[in-house]
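re: ur question from yesterday

yeah so i grabbed the chain u mentioned. its 283 aa long if i counted rite. heres the sequnce exactly as i have it in my notes:
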Amino acid sequence: MRQLGDGSVARFLRLIRFSHTIFALPFALGALVVAANGLPSLRIFLLVAFCMVFARTAAMLFNRLVDWSLDQRNPRTASRHLLISKSAASVLLVLSSTGFVVVAAAINRLTFILAPVALAIVFFYSVTKRFTSATHFFLGLALAVAPVGAWIAQTGRIDLAPVVLAAGIICWVAGFDLIYATQDYDFDRREGIRSLVVRLGIARSLRVAQLLHLLTFAALIGFGFMAKLGLPYYWSMPLVAAALVYEHKIEKRDLAGINRAFFQSNAFVSAVFLVAVCLDRLH
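ran it thru and got these structure tokens back, copy pasting raw so excuse formatting
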């Protein structure tokens, strides 16, 4: 493995895009608060947080390894392989996957049984681009595992409310991934990479993204109804709607602003969700 030196941790965090953890983690923590009908125990909170970090790290490392040569040919991602050696990424993948299963086993029996299934789901996304144009939805599924897992960690069972939330997250992620994928339209078409952007074209893909985000909003309302959330939650929904509209306004004006909209708008959506459920359940 490449010798570790100054800045190795920073390079690793850039490789797995650790800052993007803010997308899924608030939904997992929000689902945990709702399932606990208030503050969960410190033990469950920490175990869920560790599961999130381990699972996402493993998923991103698997993605980087699967796409190692492909990323080198894409101008947008060409420098990724310089951040860490391939052998180091492989070792860290094994460690993070093992860590996830061990922590899941410490929560309850069902989380332990489903841990390999969760890993299979988050890994599967990385290979879908090779055989289906629906890869954006598999990315959404990978993130949607988080709130369902958090709910199971607290309750030991699967209920309808987190499934509705998961459906909303699938639509949310698929929508913003469609916007993000417009950056790679020429490269993906040249390399034969499957995506809805290649199949439908940029303009139609952006319209599909709008529909998906409309379904996201409906699912968030549905989750509030299923979880019997109160007015503080529903009062936050206009903020979520505004963030989604802003994201689509950015992509219409300036494709160069996609990265800014991708991070800021989506981080805002997940943060508002977490604050809203906390205001409702913890007041």
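noticed a couple things. Residues 31-282 form a domain with the Tetracycline Repressor; domain 2 fold (CATH 1.10.357.140). also The radius of gyration is 19 Å.
anyway ttyl
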